[in-house]
Write a structure and sequence with these properties.
The structure holds three protein chains of three kinds.
Chain A: H1 3-33, H2 41-63, H3 67-92, H4 97-120, H5 146-151, H6 156-174, H7 176-186, H8 188-193, H9 198-225, H10 236-246, H11 251-270, H12 275-279, H13 282-301
Chain B: E1 3-14, E2 17-28, E3 32-36, H1 43-50, E4 58-63, E5 66-68, H2 73-78, E6 81-84, H3 96-101, E7 107-108, E8 111-112, H4 114-128, H5 143-156, E9 161-165, H6 173-188, E10 192-197, H7 200-206, E11 209-214, E12 217-223, H8 229-237, E13 255-265, E14 271-281, E15 284-289, H9 296-304, E16 309-316, E17 319-320, H10 326-332, E18 334-337, H11 341-345, H12 352-356, E19 367-368, E20 371-372, H13 374-387, H14 404-417, E21 422-426, H15 434-449, E22 453-458, H16 461-467, E23 470-475, E24 478-483, H17 490-497, E25 500-502, E26 508-510
Parallel strand pairs in B: 3-10, 3-11, 6-9, 9-10, 15-22, 15-23, 18-21, 21-22
Antiparallel strand pairs in B: 1-2, 1-4, 4-5, 7-8, 11-12, 13-14, 13-16, 16-17, 19-20, 23-24, 25-26
Helix pairs in contact in B: 14-15
Chain C: H1 3-28, H2 33-45, H3 48-73, H4 81-98, H5 103-132, H6 136-157, H7 178-183, H8 192-209, H9 211-221, H10 223-228, H11 233-259, H12 272-282, H13 287-304, H14 307-310, H15 316-345
Helix pairs in contact in C: 1-2, 1-15, 2-3, 2-13, 3-8, 3-11, 3-12, 3-13, 4-5, 4-6, 4-11, 4-12, 5-6, 5-11, 8-9, 8-13, 9-11, 12-13, 12-15, 13-15
Classes of the chains: A mainly alpha, B alpha/beta, C mainly alpha.
């Protein structure tokens, strides 16, 4: 197989795997930058995947090619609302945020599977017919050289994810909202004395993490698995979390990390088609993303610089 | 009467405690009004009510004669009330400008107009003589500049009434002098100032009137020129206060602690201790005077084994203890009263008894072959509690439940009980009331009289001058000079702390 | 209200609230909650067979709960119990299949293998956390997936010849108990339950009575003060994760040597490790608490299998209830916290 062809396959597979991770990692950035640890990203992706597939199966005959996109919008709403549970537990009830996040993951899976069985009577949904197809971008795909590499056989959400990452970076570092959000995560008491409503900020940030996690799950389900079952989301949420840490809580850093992890994930998916990779026992390709994640965290970061007040409930009046 | 602020019959409660009990405070326009009280008397709480961080249960607040309801800091800001906090409310990662404009950012369509913001910051700082670098990150600037940023925050929001909460706690005498100059400039520009403090000298020097608070109650308001420090101290504490602790002549003996050419880096990899030499003898108290950030913390951490020394030696009774692990240093005969008792001194969720054996639990009789003997542990705890007057319901009470003073007494009891050769005390009386302070000072002198070597580190010059047999001034990681407390003045110490060393010929050079 | 009472009340109230919420969900989804819960009860205690199954399921839950509770006491969140359990399972089955020794040696050897495998799987995140300050939550989760894929590979390629399951372990390594089978109408309850009870006592003893426990708790409460007092924080973190992993690995031995007697390919996690988190939380991270909570969860899980049968309710409802119980327990501590503050201010 020609080297370029192999590269094409790798790039499009990487972008495919990375897109959901980018969205979800951005959600994590919002939450943690405001000071709320969010382990529940996995659960938020599950909710996004679940609701998008159900919506898709129910309405695809009516909405046609628009279905996956509208399903994403629905997933945004559902994900955001679901994340409010974590917000309430962590912010208002001062629960241990890691525990609350883990509980959210259980809850999401439980609710999703309960409803799947309730609605469809079985543990796995049918396959959707309208999904994010791998397409050639009109115009850009004809650019000599990079056109074939980067703009053929990709899904639109992949590049939208990158654009959104840049937008989030802009919001976080250039706008008043972003400044205030970061202040709440670094020194909530200082923000409080400047008149910023810490609680409202944090609730909103966690809500956003649900929105983005929902997008991530919806994109994943509607471009990769094309159905929903209990094993649809298996670790992608945690990987997105790792990408966020790897990216030092910076939207662009998280994006690059997610692209890297997407690449690692794609190895096992396309490994069979690429000559050199075919020789490697599948198990190594399967565990590669997880091992790489650990190595990345250990080697590149070590002492990661989380927002100073990350994970610490803000209690007014405590000095 | 032209009162700019009136707080009338304010009552503020927290679960289980009345922090402000029917306090009345009236501030005239253009005056510097002191709010005097011990640690824990309720001064900060009262000002937090004024600033909108707390809501009072009872009472009324008037600004320029109008009744107001200050529900949050934004409202206070709109009314022209600004607060310069004791513990700076600054975000390390942000720049000076970002900290100042936070919450009231000048905008250019959707983004922050950084240029305009910096320009505004420069204008205000020029007008009031507050020298700052708008683009510097907070983590990179000095404590003095950080405080000026705090002041700028209030002025940026158009404050007419400024509340200063214990502003001089972390400043050198020179910086205090500068701050007083800034305050006088502010008054000239038409502002009014409330100064929260427990430092009588400052009140006498700069304030017009003073309101005294004791244990949550207002005691009275006086004109500063009609009173004196003794009277104020009496009002503040409710009885006569000894300003100096009784101390007999010391009889120093052998060298106990010998530090030679010590080099230590701080957490950021910058050298904090640079070639430091120091000796402490048995039976003497050596006080280290210096502005926070000149290497005191790193020095102590290096001696106690909590931080690696890059070069140099630390000897205890001749034995080299450089870079030994903390446990080995303790076993060699060093005891340490840490400067942050909640973070380093105690495990708050353990009982008092368990805390008393934090360094000894692995030895007999506290444990045998890895199994704890709780009977012995609590026996030891009871004896320490009794001897050091630690007020606690029982030895099984969690350390969290004790007051700051009692927690500190317990820590000192634990450290002294081990009969160390060297006792290191870092900020031992920080945040404590007068009674506890007197107790702790007496204990330190007692240890010295029993032949122990005591190394005292404190930012309170009074404490250093009061207790020390010799004062070593630390500046930029080295001992710049050693002076006799009986023959020096605050001014001289202040100059040394800022780096000016007097030459033998009597001339001054800046190091 | 004393601290003790409150510590007991929060989990109890959380369970009640969780069950109520479950009832509400059933109602809203068109099921009959009363029937649902009766089916649940019958499915757990209705017959002696089910009681046996409940206790059998509680056995690895006890180990998983102890593992997580132990790590929690040191301030560590061991979500890796799932992976540690898997490697323990594989190791135990491997020894059970590969050797043929008298029972008095073979069984302890297999158990020891599980213990060591789990300990090793816990050692890695412990080391990374201690030395490099890498957050154990992510590392352990990643290790879970590595364990899953690796064990599948081993089962297929090393422990069997391209099969989906390993051969059965030799009888000399088995925990199965004819006695229990007789009295519980041939449920899968096995001798591992005795080991579990021993483990409960061991954990209690270590935490409450030893200098090691003193250090671990101290580090969990306040790392700075512990370091200050001369304790080795790094050593405590690593030891805690190692012991925690060992407990979880033993849980895997329960499955490999007792419940099944072999290992098989798994497409996703058994869930025992994750449920261990709920067990630990509900048990207040104490050994006796874990014991009670594990039995409760065993009952919930076993009973839930009857819900689709008797009441047409998907058994996933119980997963929702468990998740809500965790949320309620975690949130409930605000009550305790507020009361503690009240006491402190009153001084």
């Amino acid at each position: 197989m020609h080297f370029m062809t192999a590269l094409e396959i790798m790039i499009s597979a990487s972008l495919l795997s990375a897109a959901p991770l980018i969205f979800t990692a951005l959600g994590g950035v919002f939450s943690e930058r405001s000071g709320v640890v969010n382990i529940g990203l996995e659960g938020l992706m599950i909710m996004g995947a679940f609701i998008s597939i159900v919506f898709n199966l129910t309405f695809s005959h009516a909405l046609g090619a628009w279905t996956p996109w509208i399903a994403v919008l629905v997933a945004m709403l559902v994900g955001g609302l679901f994340a409010l549970i974590h917000a309430a537990a962590s912010i208002s009830f001062r629960a241990d945020q890691t525990v609350s996040g883990v509980a959210i993951n259980f809850l999401a899976l439980g609710v999703a599977m309960f409803l799947i069985k309730n609605i469809y009577g079985k543990g796995q949904t049918n396959t959707i017919s309208e999904y994010f197809q791998q397409v050639d971008v009109p115009g850009l795909s004809h650019i000599p050289g990079i056109g074939k590499l980067f703009f053929q056989g990709i899904t639109y959400p992949s590049y939208i994810a990158i654009l959104i990452a840049i937008l989030v970076w802009f919001i976080l570092y250039k706008t008043p909202f972003g400044l205030r959000l970061r202040s709440v995560g670094e020194h909530p008491m200082a923000a409080d004395t400047m008149g910023i409503n810490v609680v409202k900020m944090r609730y909103f940030a966690v809500f956003l993490s649900g929105v983005f996690g929902g997008i991530g799950g919806a994109v994943y389900a509607q471009s990769i698995t094309l159905n929903f079952s209990s094993s649809t989301i298996s670790g992608q949420g945690y990987m997105a979390l790792a990408a966020m840490i790897f990216g030092k809580w910076n939207p662009l850093g998280a994006m690059w990390a997610a692209l890297f992890f997407g690449f690692a994930q794609s190895l096992s998916i396309v490994g069979n088609s690429i000559p050199y990779l075919k020789e490697i026992p599948n198990v190594y390709l399967l565990i590669a993303p997880y091992v790489l994640t650990i190595l990345a965290l250990a080697g590149f970061i070590g002492r990661a610089e989380a927002p100073k007040a990350d994970g610490v409930p803000y209690i007014k009046g405590e000095r | 009467m032209d009162y700019v602020i009136e707080m009338l019959h304010i009552r503020k409660e927290f679960p289980g405690i009345v922090a402000n009990d029917d306090i009345t405070l009236q501030v005239k326009k253009g005056e510097i009004h002191a709010l005097l009280g011990e640690n824990g008397a309720g001064k900060s709480t009262l000002m937090n009510v004024l600033f909108g961080l707390y809501q009072p249960e009872k009472g009324e607040i008037r600004v320029n004669g109008q009744k107001v309801n200050i529900t949050d800091p934004n409202v206070a800001n709109d009314l022209g009330i600004g607060m310069v906090h004791q513990h700076f409310m600054l975000i390390d990662k942000f720049t000076v400008t970002e900290n100042i404009i936070l919450g009231k950012e000048p905008k250019k369509s959707v983004t922050i107009d950084v240029k305009k913001a910096e320009q505004q910051v420069r204008e205000i700082s020029d007008r009031y003589g507050l020298d700052v670098d708008p683009q510097a990150k907070i983590s990179d600037i000095s404590v003095g500049m950080q405080q000026r940023v705090e002041i700028l925050k209030t002025l940026y929001r158009g404050a007419e009434i400024l509340i200063f909460d214990e502003p001089t706690a972390v400043l050198t005498p020179q910086e205090i002098h500068e701050l007083i100059g800034i305050m006088k400039t502010l008054i000239r520009e038409g502002k009014s100032i409330i100064l929260i403090t427990h430092k009588l000298k400052e009140i006498m020097e700069v304030c017009d009137r003073v309101t005294v608070i004791r244990k949550g109650k207002g005691i009275g308001t006086l004109n500063v020129q009609d009173t004196n420090p003794q009277e104020l101290a009496h009002l503040m504490v409710g009885r006569d206060v000894l300003f100096k602790t009784e101390k007999t002549e010391g009889h120093p003996g052998q060298n106990v602690l010998e530090i030679e050419q010590l080099h230590v880096k701080d957490s950021r990899g910058v050298e904090a201790v640079r070639g430091l030499d120091l000796t402490v003898r048995a039976g003497e108290i050596v006080g280290i005077a210096g502005v926070d950030g000149n290497g005191q913390s790193e020095l102590i951490e290096a001696i106690t084994g909590l931080r690696k020394a890059d070069s140099g030696t630390v000897r205890l009774n001749g034995k080299n203890i450089t870079n030994l692990r903390p446990r080995k240093v303790t076993e060699a005969g060093v005891a340490h009263i840490p400067e942050d008792r909640h973070k380093y001194g105690l495990v708050l969720d353990y009982t008092i008894g368990e805390n008393m054996v934090l360094q000894t639990y692995y030895k007999k009789p506290m444990s045998r072959n890895g199994i704890l003997n709780y009977k012995e542990i609590y026996k030891k705890a009871k004896s320490i509690i009794a001897e050091f007057d630690v007020r606690t319901p029982r030895e099984f009470t969690k350390a969290r439940a004790l007051s700051g003073g009692n927690q500190q007494k317990a820590i000192i009891g634990r450290e002294v009980d081990r009969d160390p050769d060297l006792l290191i005390a870092a900020q031992p009386t920080r945040g404590l009331d007068v009674g506890a302070i007197e107790f702790i000072h007496r204990r330190l002198i007692e240890q010295r009289d029993h032949g122990k070597a005591v190394l005292l580190v404190s930012f309170e010059l009074d404490e250093i001058m009061n207790l020390s047999d010799r004062i070593a001034v630390i500046y930029e990681g080295a001992i710049i000079d050693i002076v006799d407390p009986k023959q020096t003045t605050e001014q001289e110490l202040g100059l040394l702390m800022a780096g000016s060393k007097k030459e033998r010929e009597g001339e001054q050079t800046n190091v | 209200m004393s601290n003790r009472t409150l510590n007991l009340l929060i989990p109890v109230v959380s369970v009640i609230l969780g069950l109520l919420a479950g009832a509400l969900i059933m109602l809203v989804s068109g099921y009959n909650p009363v029937n649902g819960y009766i089916a649940l009860w019958n499915g757990a205690f209705g017959q002696v067979f089910y009681v046996g199954e409940t206790l059998r399921l509680a056995t690895p839950y006890i180990f998983a709960g102890l593992a997580i509770a132990f790590a929690f006491r040191t301030g560590l969140f061991n979500i890796g119990a799932e992976g540690q359990l898997i490697v323990g399972w594989i190791a135990a089955v491997w020894v059970g299949v590969a050797f043929d020794l008298p029972k008095v040696i073979h069984l302890p050897l297999a158990i020891l293998a599980a213990c060591c495998a789990g300990a090793f799987w816990g050692f890695i995140p412990g080391l990374l956390k201690a030395r490099l300050r890498v957050h154990e939550v992510i590392v352990t989760i990643m290790m879970n997936y590595i364990a899953l894929h690796t064990s599948n590979y081993l089962i297929r390629n090393v422990l069997s010849k391209q099969q989906d399951t390993t051969p059965h372990i030799h009888h000399s390594a088995s925990l199965s108990s004819p006695f229990f089978q007789k009295i519980t109408d041939f449920s899968t309850l096995h001798n591992g339950i005795y080991l579990a009870l021993v483990a409960v006592v061991v954990m209690w003893f270590i935490i409450e009575k030893t200098t090691l426990g003193f250090e671990l708790k101290s580090v969990g409460f306040n790392q700075s003060a512990s370091e200050y007092a001369g304790m080795s924080v790094n050593r405590s973190i690593i030891l805690s994760m190692v012991i925690s992993g060992a407990f979880a690995g033993l849980g895997g031995a329960m499955e490999g040597l007792g419940n099944y007697g072999f290992a098989f390919l798994q497409s996703s996690f058994s869930g025992i490790g994750f449920d261990g988190i709920a067990v630990a939380l509900l048990g207040g991270n104490t050994a006796p608490g874990v014991l009670i909570a594990a039995v409760l969860f065993g009952a919930l899980k076993v009973g839930s299998l009857n819900m689709p049968v008797d009441a047409n309710v998907p058994n996933e409802l119980v997963n929702i209830v468990i998740a809500l119980i965790i949320l309620f327990v975690a949130s409930g501590y605000i009550i305790k916290w507020s009361l503690a503050r009240l006491k402190r201010e009153a001084k």
